[in-house]
Design goal:
The complex is a heterodimer.
Chain A (H helix, E strand, L loop, with lengths): L6 H9 L11 H32 L3 H13 L5 E2 L3 H17 L11 E4 L6 E3 L5 E4 H6 L3 H16 L2 H22 L5 H37 L3 H13 L13 H11 L2
Parallel strand pairs in A: 2-4
Antiparallel strand pairs in A: 1-2, 3-4
Helix pairs in contact in A: 2-7, 4-6, 6-8, 6-9, 7-8, 9-10
Chain B lengths: L1 H34 L9 H5 L4 E14 L2 H13 L7 H21 L4 E13 L4 E14 L1
Antiparallel strand pairs in B: 1-3, 2-3
Helix pairs in contact in B: 1-3, 1-4
Classes of the chains: A mainly alpha, B alpha+beta.
């Protein structure tokens, strides 16, 4: 047995928990630090593109804006239902009433109204200003006041240029996401995290836009009929049809909150 | 949004299980090292043995593959963006190395060898960059004193 081996020293080294080969730091803390750094970098990148695309989109000449709107509208497919002449006339009268009440409404769109085949109660405005109401919702709208509320709400979206905002958000989002794929091609974690954060922030803006459109619709109802009771009625009908979900994760504000602020704005 | 929830949940579960597995492994390594503390394992045998008479010697070798949990690889991948000390992989490498050395020492002890000399270590990466595994091969000469 060689005498230059000290077993006791070897035992002491094993007993001590100190490990030279492993850095003793908290991985959660490290992850948090990296995430904060990444958020700062990606956030500033997002803001720059957001501002640039916003400036370009909102300052486009009216003609090019209409071209862009038509291009994006063609990408969406819908099943339009043929409606009777009486219904068509009813829709156009309501629309013209709103247009007569609001002299400042932009005249860049035809504002055609269509009924589409769908079992969900919903209505939306295309980027080119065309309004689509689902057949399920149209059945519910018994009075002209209720129809006015829905159409004025969608026209409010067009007036507030929410379609351009959506375009800007989606363009910015896709550019940033493509950027993250290049930065971190092997692991999809970064892309997933960025996509979810962008989604949540966009939902917040979407809810603000909906609230503004609601307020516009109520203003129109007040001008045309002197009261906005129809807004509350429509919302109550929608509440029965759609189950309420978590506001944080939805494009629209919570339906109870919508009813509340509609009631507050009524007179 | 659901993507993020799934990701965070996966990472959390991986972190918890990974930590438990690692702690258990370290505990095992420590107890096994304590059993073998009297038998030396040396990388350069010539100066260590000096005039000691050797009865016989034989080759001992072992290889071990240690998997890296998702949390560690996720952290390392994020760390790669900025660069720096990828500390999350260090414990995996440390475990692999100690486990491989332990295995040859145990083999040597089983065959009544007194020491392992001329120890060499080799490390290879297996698996993908998303799920890396470290493969550590250790080999050395087990000697029995005369």
């Amino acid at each position: 047995m060689p005498d230059n081996f000290d077993a006791e020293a070897a035992r002491k080294i094993i007993m001590s928990d100190e490990r030279i080969n492993v850095t003793e730091n908290n991985p959660i803390k490290e992850l948090f630090k990296i995430c904060v750094n990444l958020a700062l970098i990606i956030g500033s990148f997002y803001l720059i593109i957001f501002m640039l695309s916003g400036i370009i989109l909102f300052n486009l000449p009216a003609k090019n804006q209409v071209q862009l709107e038509n291009f994006f509208s063609k990408l969406i497919e819908t099943k339009v239902v043929k409606i009777s002449d009486a219904d068509q006339k009813r829709l156009l009268t309501v629309r013209n009433n709103i247009l007569n009440a609001d002299k400042n409404f932009p005249k860049t769109s035809n504002l055609d109204i269509f009924i589409m085949d769908d079992t969900k109660t919903n209505a939306f405005c295309y980027p080119n200003g065309n309004i689509y109401i689902t057949s399920a919702l149209y059945k519910e709208l018994t009075t002209d006041e209720e129809l006015t509320f829905i159409i004025a709400h969608e026209m409010g979206h067009y007036k507030h240029k929410d379609h351009l905002r959506n375009m800007r958000d989606s363009i910015t989002g896709s550019i940033v996401l493509i950027g993250t794929v290049f930065v971190d091609p092997s692991n999809q974690g970064l892309t997933k995290m960025t996509a979810s954060t962008i989604d949540i922030s966009n939902l917040k803006f979407s809810r603000v836009a909906e609230e503004k459109a609601d307020k516009y619709a109520i203003k129109m109802l007040n001008i045309l009929y002197g009261s906005s009771k129809a807004g509350v009625e429509v919302m109550t009908k929608l509440k029965e049809k759609n189950r309420s979900n978590i506001e944080f994760l939805s494009t629209h504000p919570n339906i109870d909150r919508r009813i509340n602020y509609i009631k507050k704005l009524s007179y | 949004m659901d993507n993020l929830i799934i990701l965070i949940a996966t990472l959390f579960i991986c972190y918890m299980t990974g930590t438990i597995v690692e702690k258990r492994h370290y505990k095992k390594i420590k107890t096994r090292e304590l059993i073998l503390y009297k038998s030396p394992c040396i990388s350069y045998g010539k100066s260590f043995l000096k005039d000691t008479k050797i009865k016989h010697s034989f080759l001992v070798s072992s290889s071990v593959v240690i998997g890296c949990d998702r949390f560690k690889s996720f952290l390392a991948n994020l760390r790669n963006i900025f660069g720096g000390n990828v500390s999350s992989y260090e414990s995996v490498l440390d475990r692999g190395r100690r486990e491989a050395i332990l295995r040859i020492r145990e083999e040597a002890a089983e065959k009544n060898a007194n020491a392992v000399i001329n120890l060499k270590l080799e490390t290879t990466m297996l698996g993908s960059s998303q799920d890396p595994q470290v493969c550590v091969t250790a080999y050395g000469t087990a000697v029995c004193y005369a």
